[in-house]
Design goal:
The complex is a heterodimer of chains A (488) and B (589). Helix content of chain A is 51%, strand content 12%. By secondary structure, chain A is α+β, with helices and mostly antiparallel strands. Chain A folds into 3 domains: 13-167, no CATH class; 178-408, Hypothetical protein af1432 (Orthogonal Bundle); 416-484, no CATH class. Chain A has a 5-stranded antiparallel β-sheet. Chain A has a 5-stranded antiparallel β-sheet with strand order 9-8-7-6-10. Among the domains of chain B are: 2-159, no CATH class; 483-589. Helix content of chain B is 66%, strand content 4%. Chain B has helices at 2-16, 20-39, 46-62, 94-99, 114-129, 137-144, 156-159, 167-170, 178-194, 212-216, 219-226, 233-247, 251-265, 269-288, 292-309, 315-327, 330-342, 348-356, 363-372, 376-389, 394-398, 406-419, 424-431, 437-450, 453-462, 468-480, 487-494, 504-518, 520-531, 539-552, 558-568, 573-588, and strands at 68-72, 76-79, 82-86, 103-108, 149-153. In chain B, strands 3-2-1-4-5 form a 5-stranded antiparallel β-sheet. In chain B, strand 1 and strand 2 (76-79) form a beta hairpin. In chain B, helix 5 packs antiparallel against helix 6 (137-144) and helix 24 (437-450) packs parallel to helix 26. Chain B is elongated, with a radius of gyration of 42 Å. The chains are: A alpha+beta (488), B mainly alpha (589).
């Protein structure tokens, strides 16, 4: 008997992978729709029955390939039977829903065995939809399991978040909250940028491994809890503007790319490129960088050289490895607009590469959101979004901008807002499902400053009567959003 | 009964803890699989076999245990209390590869498949092969995103917080007072009063946008934003296309595009020179990584640029010419040679395209390289390139003939022969006397390609070469090309007393050549040889006579034909059968 040729095996593997990838995406969407329907209707309602039937057909199809259906979330990605589900951008919201749901129950997913009948599956769906933890300190997994046992659900088994999944990530700092980890990563990144710039100025080789480690830690952090990282991007420090700006642009670029569905390798390369996007500025006179007044034409002429200097600096201090070439593409093209304009002025106009398109959006947003050296006032959230939307199609790729706004919100984190109940608040977290109604920290009302800061999720039922009425220029009233971030 | 329970418990314990021997065996297989990847060439099946053994072992061991975990220190790797690997070497130390990058624990989990294990082995082999400056094992493991292999990492920078930046760096003294809040509400009321007639919140379909900036935005932008959460099918497809295009991002092509764009932008000569030096750096990196196709594209772009600028006679043209001279320098060619010797799977087409674009100044160092190259395929490419480069530089190519190594000289003679330049013959005069017969043989072949009087002289000289094979080669060439001038030389040889003592093949070929080139002039002597009577002929004399008969059949004169027919019908059986055989062969020819 002869073994099948290697090529055939590879082809078969590829076909299986493609098949499961498609089935996975279909299951991901169908399961979500069924859960949402279950949250609104009873099991005997026709709408639910119709939706559940579709899901059952899909599950049956999966069982023709394998005797088990395994749906899990791990390391930032969803998997069906160990095959990664390649999500499209709009699916990210569904992903957030599952992440939150799984996190609440302390599960990483569930297994459905082919022995499971439709009643068991229905019971599981309703349990998953309506389960509420009695007390915060209770063991969510155990209680959920008990609930399933009481309903005699034996063939749909939740998968507990294992210690391994909690501990096995590259950046291990045990017993720390996500916020502390995010803060450490963020400050570490600023340090690394400072080191890079010092190395580059002295003509020494940039330590790529160290830089990649910090970028990878940022990616891990974004996958785990993007809102904490995003909140940190409102920090500003005029003395160290370049360093902080580079890190902020890195976080925002990674965020956009993560929602676009980049894999880890590409996220790592993009992170490196975005950290180094302004590296060319080391060749500009410090007086120009720190000029307190607006730039004149001469200043701009010099400033417009920094993308070219960026390429030269990377060539000098790095090699021509793939990551460095990617970094070069970002440094060189992040001021070239989507229609080929901007600078440096190209003899033959072309569309900038995807990495540069992403960084251009993150760079512009952060520059306006933090205020440049000569213009310390930061722009107000709605002004920034308006400005960028007006430039969609000419300066920015409209689709990327659309995805970006979906991630940072129409009231970006740090925006000072007035609520319809006459309270003044700071946006602390975006709700991807409900961009109009983010989470806010209420700091004042007509009577003055509040002694205690109150957090309200405007998307929640409890706050259904409260909404944003207007966006306020915080600087004008000495409201610095950075002072309201919980950093300690 | 009790005994039975004990037995079961022992059995369960065994199931929980795999045999330590098996764990050690697993680890040995892992090390072997990595080493096989390092030692054997990519074409060998052995690394795959080792990998297969490892995967089998992994599956069987993970059936017994959930997490197969190892602790790593600088010199050893342990499973529980058992050392599974130990080495004090710094260069070939499996433990150190992990430890130097801060990895202190390694875990294998059930569910691991062939692909993941294979990628893990490949990655370790890469890291064992060289110390990566740009990446470390931790960053590469992260990028691989393994599902069933995890690791414990100590990052000192994260553990010990010594950052210059901390929370305090970002805390400001700017805090609102109650007065600030009061004035905020006053301003808001004022704005509200002023804008009373206008609806600042554009409430239409889609998202409600609250904010004065949103109220002022153009309708098109407003439409865009109010439907920000909706993605049409076309938009989804466009996003997918955008991502797909980026997957095929061509790093090499991109780098070349950018670097030449920057070169074109340089207004100052100093900047221009700097970019040229970067181009040199890029070229060096391509060569170091054996990417000759990219190196060739780079030179091609430089040639195109030179073609555009050459009429300007500016300093910029000079700089490009200097760049090419640098490519052709001894130092750069030596670097290239070292790279070629280090790698086995060379892109020979790319190499040839690259080398062919070098200026003639590269000939001299390339000739030196010819003696240093270890692989036949690269020497072959170099010879082809030198034929191309040496067309108008015979004298430079010929310098290599002074090399002490016979194989270098032979290759150069071959190149000179291919150049088909009459001047080459002067150099061949030297090599026709070379002590190594292989050089003389190549010289003869080279001379034959010249097709001049002088080249015939060469072949005639070679008839007296100390090596019989060369003599016969030369004879063959002379006969094929019908160089009748060689007749006298051949006659002198065959009339020599010692001629009859030569090998049978020698005697046959020489007499045949004598007949073919001499025709009527050769008849008399061959007739004499064929009819000479010996009382007691020796074997050699007999052979000489019979070969003379054979040669006579090659003479086309009527006198010779008559004579050979007469011999065929004569009484002497030996001569008769020799003549008949010769006639038969001639007819066949």
């Amino acid at each position: 008997m002869t073994n099948p040729p290697q090529k055939d095996i590879e082809k078969e593997q590829q076909e299986t992978e493609e098949k499961f990838s498609l089935l996975g995406l279909e299951f991901f969407r169908n399961f979500y729709s069924t859960l949402k329907t279950a949250s609104l209707y009873e099991a005997n309602n026709n709408r639910y029955i119709s939706r559940a039937n579709k899901l059952r057909q899909l599950i049956a199809e999966i069982f023709t390939e394998d005797s088990r259906l395994s749906f899990v979330y791990k390391d930032g990605y969803f998997f069906l039977n160990n095959f990664r589900i390649k999500l499209e951008t709009p699916d990210q919201q569904i992903g957030e829903f599952f992440k939150e749901k799984f996190n609440e129950l302390k599960i990483s997913g569930f297994n459905i065995f082919s022995r499971a009948d439709s009643r068991e599956i229905d019971k599981f769906i309703f349990s998953l939809t309506h389960f509420k933890l009695p007390n915060e300190d209770d063991d969510a997994f155990e209680l959920f399991k008990e609930k399933l046992d009481s309903l005699q659900i034996e063939n749909v088994v939740p998968v507990k978040v294992s210690d391994r999944e909690d501990d096995s990530k590259g950046t291990k700092v045990k017993d720390e909250t996500s916020k502390i980890r995010a803060r450490k990563t963020f400050f570490k990144a600023i340090n690394v940028v400072q080191e890079i710039i010092t190395q580059a100025k002295s003509g020494n080789k940039i330590n790529l491994a160290k830089t990649k480690r910090v970028v990878q830690a940022m990616v891990d952090q974004i996958i785990e809890d993007e809102s904490t990282m995003v909140e940190l991007t409102i920090l500003r420090n005029f003395d160290n503007y370049t360093y902080v700006h580079s890190v902020n642009v890195c976080v925002l670029s990674l965020l956009l790319a993560y929602h676009l569905g980049f894999d880890k390798k590409r996220l790592s390369d993009l992170g490196l490129g975005s950290l180094l996007h302004d590296i060319g500025k080391i060749n500009l006179p410090p007086d120009l960088i720190n000029k307190p007044s607006a730039y004149d034409e001469m200043d701009w002429e010099q400033m417009r050289m920094h993308p070219v200097y960026g390429v030269k600096t990377i060539l000098k201090t790095r090699g021509t490895d793939r990551s460095s070439i990617r970094a070069m593409s970002v440094a060189y093209e992040h001021h070239i607009t989507i229609n080929g304009g901007g600078y440096p002025e190209l003899l033959q106009k072309r569309t900038p590469c995807l990495f540069a398109q992403i960084v251009a959006i993150a760079d512009t947003f952060n520059a306006m959101n933090s205020g440049r050296v000569y213009q310390k006032r930061r722009m107000v959230g709605d002004e920034i979004i308006t400005n960028m939307v007006n430039r969609a199609g000419t300066d920015f790729n409209p689709l990327l901008l659309k995805v970006f706004i979906n991630t940072i919100g129409i009231y970006p984190v740090g925006s000072v807002v007035k609520l319809n109940n006459e309270e003044i608040a700071i946006v602390s977290r975006t709700n991807p499902d409900d961009l109009e109604n983010p989470e806010v920290k209420v700091i004042a009302d007509r009577d003055g400053l509040k002694p205690q800061i109150k957090i309200i999720d405007l998307a929640s039922e409890e706050a259904s009567n409260i909404h944003i009425q207007n966006v306020i220029d915080g600087d004008k009233y000495n409201i610095d959003p950075a002072n309201y971030i919980d950093l300690d | 009964m009790e005994q039975k329970i004990d037995y079961l418990e022992i059995e369960l314990d065994d199931l929980k803890q795999p045999d330590t021997k098996q764990v050690i065996e697993f680890f040995n297989l892992l090390v072997k699989a990595v080493k096989a990847k390092l030692v054997y060439p990519s074409s060998s099946k052995l690394p795959e076999q080792f990998k297969g053994n490892l995967i089998k072992k992994t599956s069987s061991i993970l059936e017994k245990i959930e997490d197969l975990s190892f602790k790593i220190s600088s010199n050893n790797i342990t499973y529980g209390n058992i050392t599974v690997y130990e080495s004090s070497s710094r260069t070939e130390n499996f433990a150190h590869v992990f430890f130097r990058d801060g990895i202190v624990g390694l875990h294998f989990h059930p569910g691991i498949d062939d692909d993941e294990m294979g990628r893990f082995v490949d990655l370790l082999a890469r890291m064992m092969r060289t110390i990566y400056i740009d990446d470390d094992l931790a960053t590469l493991l992260w990028e691989e995103n393994f599902q069933y292999i995890s690791y414990d990492l100590i990052d000192e920078d994260f553990e010990i917080e010594t950052f210059e930046y901390s929370t305090n760096t970002f805390k400001t003294d700017i805090n609102p007072s109650d007065d600030d809040i009061q004035s905020l509400f006053l301003d808001e009321a004022h704005i509200k009063f002023e804008d009373d007639d206008t609806d600042t919140d554009q409430q239409k379909e889609g998202i409600n946008l609250h904010g004065s900036a949103y109220a002022r935005m153009p309708q098109e932008s407003h439409d865009f934003l109010s439907r920000i959460s909706e993605f049409s099918k076309e938009e989804k497809e466009q996003l997918a296309d955008l991502l797909a295009t980026d997957v095929s991002f061509n790093h090499t092509q991109y780098l070349l595009t950018v670097i030449f764009e920057i070169l074109g932008m340089e207004k100052e000569l100093s900047g221009y020179i700097e970019v040229i030096s970067f181009i040199g750096k890029v070229r060096d990196s391509y060569i170091a990584s054996c990417d000759f196709s990219s190196a060739s594209s780079l030179l091609n772009r430089m040639h195109e640029l030179l073609d555009v600028l050459k009429n300007l006679k500016s300093s910029r043209v000079e700089k490009i010419e200097e760049f090419f001279l640098d490519c052709a320098s001894k130092e750069k060619i030596e670097m290239l040679t070292q790279t070629l010797n280090k790698h086995k799977d060379i892109d020979t087409e790319g190499l040839e395209n690259y080398l062919k674009q070098l200026p003639w100044a590269a000939i001299d160092p390339l000739l030196s390289s010819l003696g240093e190259l270890e692989h036949y395929q690269t020497r072959r490419v170099l010879c082809k390139v030198l034929i191309e480069l040496g067309k108008d530089h015979v004298d430079i190519v010929a310098k290599g003939l002074d090399d002490e190594r016979w194989y270098v000289v032979r290759n150069i003679v071959k190149i000179l022969g291919e150049l088909a330049n009459p001047r080459v013959i002067n150099y061949l005069k030297k090599t026709i006397k070379h002590p190594d017969y292989r050089v003389r043989k190549e010289t003869l072949a080279a001379a034959a390609k010249m097709n001049t009087n002088e080249s015939v002289d060469f072949m005639i000289i070679a008839l007296s070469d100390p090596d019989p094979k060369i003599q016969l080669n030369s004879l063959k060439l002379l006969t094929e090309k019908k160089y009748t001038r060689a007749f006298m030389a051949i006659e002198n040889i065959i009339k020599n007393k010692k001629f009859k003592d030569k090998s049978p093949e020698h005697i046959r070929d020489f007499l045949e050549a004598y007949a073919i080139l001499g025709q009527s002039k050769a008849f008399a002597y061959l007739k004499t040889l064929a009819t000479k009577k010996y009382f007691f002929p020796s074997t050699n004399e007999e052979r000489l006579r019979l070969n003379a008969v054979n040669a006579l059949a090659r003479i086309k004169t009527s006198e010779a034909v008559r004579f050979i027919n007469k011999l065929a019908s004569g009484r002497n059986k030996k001569l008769s059968s020799a003549a008949m055989r010769a006639i038969h062969i001639k007819k066949k020819d």
